[in-house]
C-alpha cells in the first residue's frame, strides 16, 4: 500500500478518484489534469444551467400565483350582480393597477413537483461534482489543484454570465 504524500507535490502515484486511476508518468498526470479541467468546465456549465432554470421556474411560479389570484377575482366578480357597470367597479376595486398584486407577498413559492424534483436532481449532481473535486484536491497534488482552479476559472468565463440578471451586471 502506497502512502499519501501529506504536502503539496507534483509527483505521480496518487489515487485519483478511482482505485484503478493512479497517474504515475508525466503523460498520465497531464491527461489527468486535462480531464480535471474538462470536469470543472462541465461543473460550471451545470451551475449555469441550474441558475437559468431557477429564473424560468420563478417566472412560471409567479405566473401560476397570478393566475390563481385572477381566477379568484373572477369568481368573486361572478358572484356580484349582472349589471356591467357594477362588474367594472368591482374590477377596479380588486385590481388597482394593471397587475394583480397581493397585499402581502408570498414568502415561499408553491411546490411544483416538476420544478422541485428537477431542482433536487441538479443539487445532487452539483454535490457529486463538488465532492469529486474535493477528493482530487485532497491528494495534495499541486498539478491537480492548479488544473481544478484553472478549469473552474475557464468554466466561469464561459458560463458565468448565463442565468444571471442583466448578464451578471448590477
Brief sketch in words of this structure:
This protein is mostly helical and 170 residues long.
Overview of this protein structure:
This protein is an all-alpha fold. The chain contains four helices and no strands. Helix 1 runs parallel beside helix 4 (142-159). It is elongated. The model has no long low-confidence stretch (mean pLDDT 81).
Topology overview:
Blueprint: H1 26-78, H2 84-94, H3 113-137, H4 142-159
Distance N to C terminus: 53 Å
Q: Biggest sheet: strands, sense, closure? A: none
Low-confidence stretches: none
Instruction: Tell me roughly what share of residues is in helical segments.
Output: 55-70%
| SSE topology string | HHHH
Gyration radius, rounded: 26 Å
Number of strands: 0
Mean pLDDT: 81
Beta-strand proportion: under 5%
Sheet/helix structural class: mainly alpha
Please give the count of helices: 4
What general outline do the C-alpha atoms trace?
elongated
Which key terms come to mind for this protein?
170 residues; mainly alpha
